Amino acid sequence: MNLVDSSGWLEYLADGKNAKLFAPAIEMTNELLVSTLNIYEIYKKILLEKDENSAIQVIGLMQQARVIEVDSLIAIEAAKLSYELKIPMADSIIYTTAKLNKAIVWTQDINFKKLDDVKYFKK
Q1: Domains held by the chain: number
Q2: For a FRET experiment, which of 11, 70, 72, 97 has its CA 20 to 30 Å from that of 80?
Q3: Which residues pair with 106 in a beta bridge?
Q4: Model confidence at 58, in pLDDT bands (50, 70, 90)?
Q5: Could you give the dihedral angle defined by the CA atoms of residues 57, 45, 106 and 66, in that order, rounded to the nearest 10 degrees?
Q6: How far is it, in rounded angstroms, from Cα 106 to Cα 4?
């Protein structure tokens, strides 16, 4: 299973220089997990930069994967991880969601670089 961090989604959607690196994870929807936190972050970013219709279309694409709700178990485990590793809330939720679902995190976010089960791509 794979979980693409919001930085990877945005790179893919913008057809940035690393877009092709994220394509295998994003396009294999039967192996893809999406956190509701990813949906929040991507929807907000596209809403700010484009419009609501574009944001809705992207969320439709994301929802072709298996969407994982942020429940109390994820919240508590993510809080512990954030405390222990001193990483931001959103990153700890994404990483915890992946770990609890035995998924690999695909990202360009440096906060994930040294964590296990992460495919990190330099921006």
Answers
A1: 1
A2: 11
A3: 4, 119
A4: very high
A5: -40
A6: 5
